[in-house]
Amino acid sequence: MIVRSLEEVIGTEREVKGPTWTSRRLALAEEKVGFSLHDTVVHAGTEITMWYADHVEAVYVIEGHGELVDDETGDTHSLEPGVMYLVDAHQHHTLRAHTEFRAVCVFNPALTGREVHDENGAFPLLTEKGQ
After folding, report:
1. 107 to each of 44, 45, 87, how far by Cα in Å?
2. What is the tens place of the pLDDT at every residue in 85-108?
3. CA distances from 102 to 33, 40, 83, 85 (A)
4. DSSP 56-102
5. The model's pTM
6. Rounded distance, CA 8 to CA 39, Å?
7. Pairing with 36, which of 5, 24, 78, 124 sits 20 to 30 Å away (CA)?
8. If residue 8 lies in a helix (H) or strand (E), which one and from where to where?
9. pLDDT in tens, 43-70
10. How many Å separate Cα 87 from the centre of its chain?
């Protein structure tokens, strides 16, 4: 059994920062459970364009307000605490944070912890060392 607090992750290599976001990676590929679990903050007034070509992502909003745009259809969805969205078909999408925005994110396959968004907004498909 693994028990890990957010406080234990902050300030370690499991806290990864991008220009518009901070991801605190609570469970990673090294745990070998088939998914990774992240506490993610997106800074107020910013937006991130993403395309997870190799991953499926579920996002559950716990703080803040924003909107999600399906860049393929133009559909826009309001995001607030209690709302979940699932990027299940590798859709290109944009997240806009109207306020500081915090969510719990689950990725499959699991992230290793070293990923950052590339020029296409995707995470590379990395494996654990030795795999």
Report:
1. 23, 25, 10
2. 999 988 999 999 999 999 999 999
3. 24, 6, 12, 13
4. EEEEEEEE--EEEEETTT--EEEE-TT-EEEE-S--EEEEEESS-EE
5. 0.87
6. 12
7. 78
8. helix 6-9
9. 999 999 999 888 899 999 999 999 999 9
10. 11
Give me the pLDDT at residue 41, please: 98
Residues in the chain: 131
Q: Is the C-alpha dihedral spanning 57, 54, 73, 119 positive or negative?
A: positive
Question: What span, in angstroms and rounded, lies between the C-alpha atoms of 29 and 109?
Answer: 8
Helix, strand, or coil here: 9? helix
Q: Give which of 46, 49, 83, 77 is closest to 63, Cα–Cα.
A: 83
Q: How many CB atoms lie within 10 A of CB 18?
A: 14
Position 67, amino acid: E
